[in-house]
């Protein structure tokens, strides 16, 4: 191989592998986002629940937010097997990203819930609506649409954090780049392409979020 | 119909109502007047169990509202008991508080179907009938944001009536409205007062309305009823100096 800075032949040769890795990155992002959206909503609602439960949930959210995602990934991947729980790298990734981001999205949901006027709760109470219906029929339909852009931003952040999973051997796009580099001792092309692939997806996504923001107004 | 017995309500150190006793007969229309902070709205909020009493008891139609009987003793009411008693009480708020995520129809059929167990058809028929009453039948599929304040308040009144309440609480229902929209809402309330036998408790600054709508007017000051009389008597010949002062101030402003 010649010593030019950029080798197009090499770049094209490794592209299919990198795209395969990108597919895995997207799978981890989508599954992690689903966990984060659903669990975050549950955590937010529970924090409005009976006091002891709310305190426990609050404590959990603070714990997760105050520790690095990488430590959480390592804990799930290397510590849990000591207790007989062995999970694949992708499963660990989805759980770690999902739970970690759920603790952030729960704050977003909470802000959305807090922004629903008190009068709405009172009107629902005055009509004797059951608590569950107050949530599903009155509060969440008003709270959630307003926070969709903020949630979108967290999906984009999560997408860019998937490469942390290379630390436990997940062959996402950066994992594949690392593999190619280690095999051919050329790192410029694989990491550049990996970076460009992220840019190519993140940037349009953030433009989309900004358009959404303008439509729903921020809270 | 409604009995307050030794009711006390505090917010922190601030005593809003102290040792309050009064009774409202079935079908009676009672207006609460008094300076702001005198505890009028708190009474409505206690009746709607949006607040809990600190001492004393409230009964509605012979049932404890803030308490329930358990093993021969009075204990604070749980959520289920509160909801059961609340079903018979409707409330209309100053800020309307319609659900913006639902159409007018959705607002009107939500509680009848979910709480009273009416079928969709029954609830719809009731909604249409009530919208006829409030003169907004053609708005049934609009969202509240498309209605004027006066129209929203009329829908809110219809929403409260859709539960067929025995008691209706009106909390300064015209205070947030533009002046030209007030008359329509008051006319509707007069109509409801004449055509139904609902017991109505009303907090208002509309003294003209209070005079011809109520059977009784209670003047509040410092968490106490200081004067309780038929409107003709109370407005033309107030006895308590605080009542005189208050009416003078209100009439000058109006």
TrEMBL record, chain A:
PROSITE patterns: ABC_TM1. It is found in: Cell membrane. InterPro entries: AA_ABC_transptr_permease_3TM, ArtM/GltK/GlnP/TcyL/YhdX-like, Ectoine_EhuD, MetI-like, MetI-like_sf. Pfam families: BPD_transp_1. The chain crosses the membrane at residues 22-46, 74-99, 191-209. Residues 22-209 form the ABC transmembrane type-1 domain. Keywords: Amino-acid transport, Cell membrane, Membrane, Transmembrane, Transmembrane helix, Transport. The keyword Lyase does not apply. It is a multi-pass membrane protein. Its main location: membrane. Belongs to the binding-protein-dependent transport system permease family. PANTHER family: L-CYSTINE TRANSPORT SYSTEM PERMEASE PROTEIN TCYL, MEMBRANE COMPONENT OF AMINO ACID ABC TRANSPORTER. This is Ectoine/hydroxyectoine ABC transporter permease subunit EhuD. It comes from Pseudonocardia xinjiangensis.
UniProtKB/TrEMBL annotation, chain B:
Residues 2-247 form the ABC transporter domain. It is found in: Cell membrane. GO terms for molecular function: ATP binding. Its main location: membrane. It is a peripheral membrane protein. It comes from the Bacteria. InterPro entries: AAA+_ATPase, ABC_ATPase_HisP-typ, ABC_transporter-like_ATP-bd, ABC_transporter-like_CS, MetN_ABC_transporter-like, P-loop_NTPase. Keywords: Amino-acid transport, ATP-binding, Cell membrane, Membrane, Nucleotide-binding, Transport. The keyword Membrane applies. Gene3D superfamilies: P-loop containing nucleotide triphosphate hydrolases (3.40.50.300). Belongs to the ABC transporter superfamily. This is Amino acid ABC transporter ATP-binding protein. It comes from Pseudonocardia xinjiangensis.
């Amino acid at each position: 191989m010649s010593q030019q800075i950029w080798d197009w032949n090499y770049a094209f040769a490794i592209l299919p592998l990198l795209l395969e890795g990108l597919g895995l990155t997207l799978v981890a992002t989508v599954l992690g986002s689903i966990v984060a959206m659903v669990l975050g909503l549950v955590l937010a609602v529970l924090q409005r629940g009976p006091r002891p439960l709310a305190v426990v949930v609050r404590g959990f959210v603070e714990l997760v937010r105050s520790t690095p995602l990488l430590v959480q990934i390592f804990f799930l991947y290397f510590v849990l097997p000591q207790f007989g729980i062995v999970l694949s790298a992708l499963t660990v990734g989805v759980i770690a990203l999902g739970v970690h981001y759920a603790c952030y999205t729960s704050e977003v949901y909470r802000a959305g819930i807090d922004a629903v006027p008190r009068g709405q709760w009172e009107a629902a109470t005055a009509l004797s609506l059951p608590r569950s219906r107050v949530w599903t029929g009155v509060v969440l339909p008003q709270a959630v649409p307003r926070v969709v852009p903020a949630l979108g931003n967290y999906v984009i952040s999560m997408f860019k954090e998937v490469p942390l999973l290379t630390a436990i051997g997940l062959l996402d796009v950066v994992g594949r780049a690392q593999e190619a580099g280690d095999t051919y001792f050329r790192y410029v092309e694989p990491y550049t392409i990996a970076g460009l692939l992220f840019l190519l997806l993140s940037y349009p996504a953030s433009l989309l979020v900004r358009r959404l923001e303008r439509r729903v107004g921020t809270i | 119909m409604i009995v307050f017995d030794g009711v006390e309500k505090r917010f922190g150190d601030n005593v809003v109502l102290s040792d309050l006793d009064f009774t409202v007969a079935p079908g009676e229309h009672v207006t609460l007047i008094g300076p702001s902070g005198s505890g009028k709205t708190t009474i409505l909020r206690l009746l709607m169990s949006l607040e809990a009493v600190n001492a004393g008891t409230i009964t509605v139609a012979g049932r404890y509202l803030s308490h329930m009987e358990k093993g021969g003793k009075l204990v604070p009411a749980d959520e289920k008991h509160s909801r059961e008693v609340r079903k018979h009480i409707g409330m209309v708020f100053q800020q309307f508080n319609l659900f913006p995520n639902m159409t007018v129809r959705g607002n009107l059929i939500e509680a009848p179907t979910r709480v009273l167990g009416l079928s969709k058809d029954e609830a719809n028929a009731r909604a249409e009938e009530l919208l006829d009453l409030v003169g907004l039948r053609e708005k049934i599929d609009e969202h509240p944001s498309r209605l004027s304040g006066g129209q929203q308040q009329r829908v809110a009144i219809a929403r409260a009536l859709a539960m067929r309440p025995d008691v209706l609480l009106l909390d300064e229902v015209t205070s947030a409205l533009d002046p030209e929209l007030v008359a329509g809402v008051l006319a509707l309330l007069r109509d409801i007062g004449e055509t139904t036998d609902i017991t109505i408790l009303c907090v208002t600054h509309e003294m003209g309305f209070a005079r011809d709508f109520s059977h009784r007017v209670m003047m509040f000051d410092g968490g106490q009823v200081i004067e309780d009389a038929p409107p003709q008597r109370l407005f033309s010949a107030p006895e308590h100096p605080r009542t005189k002062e208050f009416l003078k101030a209100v009439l000058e402003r109006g």
